[in-house]
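Much of our argument rests on the idea that a fold can be written as discrete symbols. In the encoding step, the backbone of a single protein was reduced to a row of integers, each denoting a local shape. This step matters because it turns folding into a mapping between discrete strings. For completeness, the protein is quoted in full, as a sequence line and a line of structure tokens:
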Amino acid sequence: MNADILLHPYDEELKRIINGFARLLKEVVETVDRFGLKKHFLHRHCNSGSRFYGEMESTDVQSEAALKCKQRFEKNRDKLFTFLDYDGVPWNNNNAEHAIKAFAALRAGIRGSSSENGTEDYLILLSVCQTCK
């Protein structure tokens, strides 16, 4: 979605949707920074999430970029704020993306797929490497 706003910097409808989400996410990140990934503290943002969706649904957008953004938020409504209901669930997928980079590098290095045994060996080496870091 960040690319959408960069491609359409003068689209006020798109800005309104993105800014509403950014305000909500800023509050959530501040709570995470202060209290950690604790459901007890994060759960209070569920109302803010519902309010964000209510405001977005009541807004009639005309631009293609804003409509696309709105549809994407609606499509992911049930998944986007799941982390608010559980302890220890990160609000982003940075850890997962970082972990998968090693496999992407392996795939690029061998230019194809590896066997199950080869993948297991690689995981062991990757674990040792991460431990050393």
Remarks:
- The longest helix spans residues 12-35.
- The radius of gyration is 20 Å.
